[in-house]
Amino acid sequence: MSLKINYLDKLNNSVKNIGIFVSKETKIADFKGILSQNTAQKVIGYIIRNKKSEKNKIYCLNEDHDKKILIIFVSQIKSLNDSENLGANFYDYINKDQIKDISIVESNPSNFKNKVKLESFIHGAQLKSYEFNLYITKKKFKIIQFNVIKSKNQIDIKLRNRLNAILDGVNFTKDLVSEPGNILHPDEYARRIVKLKKFGLKVTVYDQKKLKKMGCNALLGVGQGSIRGSYLVVVEWKGLKNNSRPLAFVGKGVCFDTGGYSLKPAKFMEDMTYDMAGSAAVIGLMKTLALRKSKINAVGVVGLVENMVSGNAQRPGDIVKSYSGKTIEILNTDAEGRLVLADALTFTEEKFKPKFMIDLATLTGAIIVSLGSEYAGLFSNNDKLSKQLIESGKKIEEKLWRMPLHKNFDKLINSKNADMQNINYVGGAGSTTAAQFLQRFVLKKTPWAHLDIAGMAFSKYGGALNSGGATGYGVRLLNNLIEDNYE
User: Are strands 376-380 and 319-321 parallel, antiparallel or unpaired?
Assistant: First the structure.
């Protein structure tokens, strides 16, 4: 991250660049001790010209050749997310303008009808400032410094700590997704998760030997072509003293996906390093819950495999017996994520008897055809859980669109040779039949939701709160779901 935050009690007279919040109600007296009389009058003139504006704006005023005043005009702040977006826009502005050091001042914010939450503003800037440049040897790395003028007793420490926990979780997720496949293979991924024990998380690793004994043949079949191991890793957080049933989060962790013998096209195969983004969101969430000492019990379960081509790889036409006991005919080895999740879901439900299960996976290209990169697909057997997820998505701006599940789709994945087949060869409804497949492995009517995040986990162009690359989608969404409904 290229942003450094310093909290200062007062404005240093030698400072060159100042960022100042203003609203329609701001008066010239609010700038006393901050701006010169001449500059303050210019700022008031800008406010007068923009009184009818319904947009939050950032405007640059050059006080002299080497000093800039950035006017952060606050028109509408309806939520913390609005403050975060404004902070992200502010970071973009100063980054493009190559401003390396800026002091941010709240100019009498009590005047604001819709007050900016400064901690959330900073949080948005921090999220936007993420960079992954670990393997660039000649780094053009620059640190942008925010000097926040706010006395320590005015800082909302509780909110600041909460937002830092979320930031750490999101950035950890982004780091995992951004790593190349030769570095973050299943063996290394499992080792990194084990290191999270230092935050108070309990981590249990089921390796190939244990998985074979357990009967997780659907998951093992995906990874059998790789020289790397295959794993089921369980991460537990106990934020309550009682043994109440946990909230469960399950993630697809295909560290690299060639498609197996149903080989993917060479073009864009390099992007398949992010086919483990669902698992990364689960792990980032668990880290966040531990860092902020969340008052819930939660479990994260991730299946870690590598889908490779070799003399030992799974073949189209193979039949495997899953952890549930149900048999699956493998018609397409590139429909592998659902095989990993099938065993993980049944295992999680049986072992932990959770209040609900939510799985996240970059599961189908079809969901991108349906929803692009604006919404993740939501499939669920429970209306209450779906509503909670959709509301959290709106609040956090990690949006979800509910897609259908229906027993009539089952006929598309019924097999003549096994209990089911892993793809629909008839064509159409690719995302729905994948979700319908997963639903067969929720055996005890546990409230369950499947989030197909194939269009959301990685962005070529960046979004409101993230730069291009890994987005960290899912961490903030699920953290908010927990905060609003289960804590």
Answer: unpaired
The phi and psi torsions of 415 (rounded to 5 degrees) equal -115, 150
This prediction's pTM: 0.95
Domain ranges of the chain: 3-155, 162-485
pLDDT of residue 149: 81
Catalytic residues: 264, 338
Helix (H) or strand (E) holding 248: strand 247-257
In Å, how far from its chain's centre is CA 415? 36
Q: How far is CA 426 from CA 116, 409, 421, 429, 434, in A?
A: 53, 11, 12, 9, 13
Q: What is the pLDDT of residues 292-340, one digit of tens each?
A: 999 999 999 999 999 999 999 999 999 999 999 999 999 999 999 999 9
Instruction: Render pLDDT for 391-401 as a digit per residue (tens, 0 to 9).
Output: 999 999 999 99
Strand ranges, E, within 111-154? 144-149
d(CA 337, CA 276): 9
Give the tens place of pLDDT for each residue, 7-43.
Answer: 887 777 667 888 988 888 888 888 888 888 888 898 8
Helix H or strand E encompassing 305: strand 297-307
Q: Residue 41 is which amino acid?
A: Q
Query: CATH homologous superfamily for 162-485?
Result: Zn peptidases (3.40.630.10)
Residue listed under structure tokens 């700590």:
161
Which structure tokens are listed for 349?
Answer: 């439900």
pLDDT value for 113? 47
Q: Residue 206 and residue 194: Cα distance in Å, rounded?
A: 12
CATH architecture of 3-155: 3-Layer(aba) Sandwich (3.40)
Question: For residues 80 and 160, what is the distance between their CA atoms, to the nearest angstrom?
Answer: 13
Give the chain's length.
Answer: 487
Q: Is 29 exposed, middle or buried (0-12, 13-18, 19+ CB in 10 A)?
A: exposed
Candidates 235, 237, 344, 324; CA nearest to 289 is 237
